[in-house]
Amino acid sequence: MDYEKKFSQVAKTAKASIIRELLKVASDPEMISFGGGVPDPETFPREELGEIAAKIVKEEYKITLQYGPTEGDNELKKAYINLLKKHEGIEGVSPENMLVTVGSQEALQLIGLALLDEDSYCAVGKPVYLGAVSAFKQMFPKFLEIPLEDDGMNVDILEEKLNELVNKGEIDKFKFVYVVPTFQNPAGVSMPLEKRKKLINLAHKYDFLIIEDDPYGALRFEGEPIPSIYSLEPERTILLNTFSKILCPGLRIGIIIASTDLLRKFTIIKQGVDLCTPTLTQRLAARYLQAHDRIEQLKPTLELYKSKKDSMLNALEEEFGDMQGVSWTRPEGGLFIWLTFPEWVDTMEMFEEAKKNKVLYVPGEAFYVNEVEKNHMRLSFCLPSHEEIKEGIRRLRKVAESYVKMKSLSS
Amino acid sequence: MDYEKKFSQVAKTAKASIIRELLKVASDPEMISFGGGVPDPETFPREELGEIAAKIVKEEYKITLQYGPTEGDNELKKAYINLLKKHEGIEGVSPENMLVTVGSQEALQLIGLALLDEDSYCAVGKPVYLGAVSAFKQMFPKFLEIPLEDDGMNVDILEEKLNELVNKGEIDKFKFVYVVPTFQNPAGVSMPLEKRKKLINLAHKYDFLIIEDDPYGALRFEGEPIPSIYSLEPERTILLNTFSKILCPGLRIGIIIASTDLLRKFTIIKQGVDLCTPTLTQRLAARYLQAHDRIEQLKPTLELYKSKKDSMLNALEEEFGDMQGVSWTRPEGGLFIWLTFPEWVDTMEMFEEAKKNKVLYVPGEAFYVNEVEKNHMRLSFCLPSHEEIKEGIRRLRKVAESYVKMKSLSS
């Protein structure tokens, strides 16, 4: 049978994640990978989680093995509200403001379903976390791509583009700005308080929502915390959190925090998406958070990440400090450094050479919607050891040199 | 902020599940509920699952607490392939034909996303499982509603409707027929082999896919098993299975079985939906299936369900046998009996009286897309005790009598 004829527009335009495809070679033991944004499994509290898992399956089976409410587990919500209060300074959140999702990815899909039509607009960073785009794209909206700077999205250019929509009479079709304001994926940069306030002012002026995706906020290892956009403007902000980076990704638990009117809509749509998030994994996270101060526990992990980040910055300075037109970001947290080459460099083209030299990164073009830039790469520092970081960046320098040579020979 | 202006078409048209809303009163301890299609938690193997959960979290943490492949856990797929071979007589399925989803509901959503556009057609039963419709509806297709008979969907009417599409020149926009051929939800009826073959012939003749949703197939307590549509026609059939009814719903594990070309597409789309199904719950189900013959274990549960079904049929005969124009289905498995009243009866209107008399059912109108029939109700027999079934049907007779009296007084 010719299935092609039966496929929808979504199916015809869906593309496999470049990252997943590229990183399939990462299993080679000699490969040093700066690719995935995957936390170190040795940081997962496996003993405690194992004990709790047995207990809640045996004793709370009427909850953990049964269907649950679409809204999510109230025990988990209450535990998370405490965490938000204590560590993020976010007050006034009630369980009715929260929906538990299958990771943040489902949250992104629900947002797309609830807010976007084919004639809608939304704004995203350039570069942007591609998981968000692949969720939003299912509704075929138009994307405004707003350049990212060392202090986050360029809000002046955002305003220019919004004004263009005003002039075209289409501003009422503009739904939201999507940002990862703290330790952005892929660039690692953060938006300072003043810029957050500017963004909020724009949200009022042009009447839009802000999607604040915050998977890395708790992974700060230096510098001062910046208030979340949600805490400054709860009415217009939809805050997305995840347990993937602070506890472990396997549970697939994300949390949407937003006004009750939005939440009710997301909940009704989620009924048609998967009825409910698994009850077992939710209760497991709930009982764990009730017994442990996870943010306190994370401190040694953050120390480790910080030292690895420093190792990578040092190695970059050493290997690329003398190479003209090469620059990189200096994140205060999160998992990623964004390395920029001169504009004529194509890091996807360079990727073959990197594989040969047993070092992996994610080519920057994976993080653009339409207006692709090819001269960047994302480097993750959380998994490789200090020695591997040093050696990997050395290999990368070699790769860059070979690439430069190849390009000058062919031109 | 006025959120209404920001909502998409999906959000504006999404409706809360009537079932979930109605059954909120079920927590009253005096209430006898024939409402939910929820399995008895005492049938969940909690001790074994608890032991396995602890072991796989502690020892297989690099898998169970980490991100997993979008395709699903290979251990689970292999265990399930064995189950399919042994108990369903389905051969030739490989892991590449399988995708593990967050319950069947996610499978239904992926099917909608992958196959339906706004100008597409699909056919569903009248009545139909509403979870399927709420997933498909997100893409705004046109529904052909095909009457359900005591032996499943009326395939002659299906063919008539397909011919109408041929005449309108729109048959190429017809994508699939959605059926629950064994112990249908809500009606409990099954489609015999001959009719399955007829449906397959139509699929060839009019070039469409068949979505075979089979949550209840393993819950047969009498009569001869009927080969699944997938086993007869794997190329054109997408088979949906779930662990919710045979193991427990809390794990939220569904499985799509289809040709590799379809599977690849579903997998790419799932990347944008939730990246992957939780790894912990998948491995838990896998290790359980490897150690236990779950279908063998289910036998006492099926004995229990059968006797409860018989209790309900006896009670219906006793209470409603003399009531003109009342009939009901006689399922050989599954969870539901479908009770039909004369056409002037409205079971939603009757619902208030039922609540007063402390008995609950699901009004039939919950199971129709556009052409609603109001004179049916769905009765689930798996959770209440024998005594409650007897007493509940007695109350229902009282409710029907009061309703008839009220209607004749008001007319």
Automatic annotation (TrEMBL), chains A, B:
Domain of life of the native organism: Bacteria
SUPFAM superfamilies with a match to the protein in the record: PLP-dependent transferases (SSF53383)
Oligomeric and partner information: Homodimer.
Source organism: Petrotoga miotherma DSM 10691
UniProt protein name: Aspartate aminotransferase
GO BP of this protein: alpha-amino acid metabolic process
Recorded family membership: Belongs to the class-I pyridoxal-phosphate-dependent aminotransferase family.
GO molecular function: pyridoxal phosphate binding; transaminase activity
